[in-house]
Specification:
homodimer, 9 helices, 5-stranded mixed β-sheet, Methyltransferase, Cobalt-precorrin-4 Transmethylase, Domain 2, alpha/beta, Cobalt-precorrin-4 Transmethylase, domain 1
């Protein structure tokens, strides 16, 4: 029987067979869990159906954890784990608790000394960093850039400084419909010698991970509109 | 036939079946590659044997890429890829090019417009971050702390500032035989309110990932001597 623990269950980043991006062990573990904390019940059910047709989805319990959930509600969701049952956290895409509300549930489990077990799965941050050719010994993920123009420009300057002074790769994301605008803006605002890696549709059919200098991006043709993309900056 | 590209092939972090931590697709891809760039030939051969008994290891070519390799040698290693053959990079443990010399080969491939394809696999950085309960929307991996005492203390102060000002989780590693000493040192040097996550032997039989306050670590009993461990710090 599966050990009682809070299993952190990564979800594919793109369409295609789950076995392409998840180890067999994940599928086996998922099939033994009865209680899930999820960001979105519909997509979690779809993911479980993809994992295995043997899972009786109607027998499972789902608690929704999103940015509207109150801390005391999160604590209550963990009751099955306290009672000795295995639980799973499923996020929308990629790894739970990385740029995702699941971290709150994990923090409570850790505080109460409950066992937490992360499973292997696709992380756009790690996969893009591997493929960028940039420094993997020192890097920062900064999430979204600020929207307000002056704050945004200041953030770009901060990132330049972290690259130069700390030799630190800078990783960030953008709302997909603004991808093209962001690249144009970076091409205009940053020194031409810096390198920008644009990693798009990772693990998907049309995955492209391309590193060019800012000067090259300024002259390049591209279209990343509405495609999930992650950006990396380095010297 | 496998597309000509530079495949970045993660390796398990611990003993046990590769299928527990690698997707089936990785095994299939590895079996179709004839040319590898590796950090250590012996452990790369062992890994390939674990992947599949059908691989004829003596028919493969291996180039060694480590911290002693010159840039022009790295460029020469990529010739099979330029000639239209699939190539793979295999690191010692975890993901190639993350805290690993493989990044140089990837950078050259990117510069020449050669296709780079990262595969899914275990990353101690991402897995420990997921399980820590810390901020996954903003984090930095800083590698090893400096050894020189004054520089080391300054680095701890820098990390404290990044936690407070940037709300940024700090992730770092230590030579495994110094793990216990490091924890004692952090317990003495850092504010008791900060939280330290110690993630040890990830994916292994005795995996433990424990988050406590610095004050709690100061009173805790632990022994991480010579066990691969990663450290995370947050408020």
């Amino acid at each position: 029987m599966l050990q009682a623990a809070l299993y952190l269950i990564p979800v594919p980043l793109s369409d295609g067979p789950t076995s392409d991006v998840l180890p067999q062990r994940n599928i086996a573990i998922v099939g033994e869990i009865g209680h899930f904390i999820v960001e979105n019940v519909r997509s979690a059910r779809r993911f479980l159906r993809q994992c295995s047709r043997d899972i009786d989805i109607d027998s499972l319990t789902f608690s929704t954890l999103d940015e509207h959930t109150q801390p005391e509600e999160v604590a209550a969701m963990l009751q099955p784990l306290r009672d000795g049952h295995a639980m799973g956290i499923i996020s929308e895409a990629g790894c739970p608790a990385i740029a995702d509300p699941g971290a709150d549930a994990v923090a409570i489990a850790q505080r109460e000394g409950l066992k937490v077990v992360p499973l292997v799965g696709p992380s756009s941050i790690v996969m893009s960093l591997m493929a960028s050719g940039f420094n993997g010994q020192s890097f920062a993920f900064v999430g979204y850039l600020p929207i307000e123009p002056r704050q945004r420009l200041r953030k770009l300057r901060d990132m330049e400084q972290c690259i130069d002074r700390l030799d630190q790769t800078q990783i960030f994301i953008e709302t997909p419909y603004r991808n093209n605008k962001l690249i144009a803006e970076l091409a205009k605002s940053l020194p031409p010698r810096l390198r920008l890696c644009v990693a798009s549709n990772i693990t998907g059919q049309n995955e492209t991970i391309v590193t060019r200098t800012i000067g090259e991006w300024a002259r390049a043709k591209y279209d990343y509109n509405k495609i999930p993309t992650i950006f990396l900056l380095y010297k």
